[in-house]
Amino acid sequence: MMNSSRYDRQIKLSEVGIEGQEKLQKASVLIVGAGGLGCPAALYLAVAGVGTIGLIDHDIVEETNLHRQVLFTEKDVGKSKVEAAKEVLIQHNSTIAIQAYNYRLDENSIFDLIRDYDIVLDGTDNFQTKYLINDACVKMDKPFVGASIYKYQGQLSVFNYKNGPTYRCLYPTHHYKDNNNCEETGVLGVLPGIIGTMQAAETLKIILSMGQPLSGKLKIIDTLTMQEQLIAFPLNKSLIKQVKDLPLKLETAICTIKDQDQLYLDVREPFEQPKPTNERVLEIPLGQLKDRYNEIPRNEKVHVYCQSGIRSKKAITLLEKEYGFDNLVEAGGIEELLK
Amino acid sequence: MPITIKYFGAIAEATGITEEKVDLGDVDSIEQLKSICLAKYEAIGDLSFQLAVNQSLSSKDALKDGDEVAFLPPFAGG
Hints:
The structure holds two protein chains of two kinds. By secondary structure, chain A is of the alpha/beta class. Chain A contains 13 helices and 14 strands. Chain A has helices spanning 8-11, 17-26, 38-48, 81-92, 110-115, 127-140, 167-170, 182-185, 190-208, 237-245, 289-292, 310-323, 334-338; strands at 28-32, 52-56, 97-101, 119-122, 144-150, 153-159, 217-222, 227-232, 254-255, 263-266, 275-276, 281-283, 302-306, 328-333. In chain A, the strands form three sheets. Chain A has an eight-stranded mixed beta sheet, with helices on both faces. Chain A has a four-stranded parallel beta sheet with strand order 12-10-13-14. In chain A, strands 9-11 form a two-stranded parallel sheet. The longest helix of chain A has 19 residues, at 190-208. Chain B has a single domain (2-72), classed as Ubiquitin-like (UB roll) (Roll), CATH 3.10.20. Chain B has two helices and four strands; from the N terminus they run E-H-E-H-E-E. Chain B has helices at 9-15, 30-40, and strands spanning 2-7, 19-23, 50-53, 68-72. In chain B, strands 2-1-4-3 form a four-stranded mixed beta sheet.
């Protein structure tokens, strides 16, 4: 028997009641990405009594996460995000089940993972995974609560809800130059707190069948002006049919770096696009350099690049100061190399 | 024809403004408006965006007096 007294204040709401609380207890939500959006969303869903919460993220907690990823404390730096989050969530509500999946969601694992969940909550920070979640949810007929952020602005919508419009109906595709994640552009910490909490609200509305979930509408919030926009978008049946008919595959944009003879070091994350097809490219993400710097040759010039030129600068500083490299050339963002 | 244009996210950075009121003369289609903006702000040509007219994405191409057009880029951050 469920302990209902802890939920008294929401059971008092006529739209929730004991029945609603039981619905929450039986519900399961998979949160993809335990970052700025995933942290507040997970916390509110846990304390509301959502019976099963899955968290998937392959990352570890970094110091630069602490200003916005509010489940983590200083002592969590270096730990698995999902394990650290699970520990905190259980302290908040020991009566629910928290599943931690410490790996990256990909096209091979996604079906098995989302099969067991009623709703997916997208807290990811890249387009490739957003389209992957969309396509898998369309194929498996699961609603997903999507959101994304940029500096001071957030976007929120409920996709694929009762055969409603999907993420591709809103954004059929994207240009590879759009990869504007928080690491590159910066973000005000409170923004994902606001938007992630709204995702939790939409998720609760879906579970409780109350109000009007944000289906077919995109909410845009600008925290600098506190202005909001609600943009309606229609169902694109042919796009949905395409997604249903074709096998699931990752969207990858490829490119070729003009100067093929030089040796390059790509310090971006593996999912970042476009991917050069050149043979002489070493791929070591910035965060792994301190463990893998010995893979970088010292006997020829190495041209270091990233998405926009910020991380390549950091990488060169690190490699020169800490490990004595003197053969690195700053190549900036990948766009520069494609011209 | 007076039109209000709103720019969001990276698009607003490329244009340097979040909103402007323009008089398009005898321009009356979204495609024409788009070409004008792309010519005026070259940097937005590199970005993806959807165009909403009066808070709605639609396939209609006609513009009328007082319409509000929004340039909506997808965001990636989380």
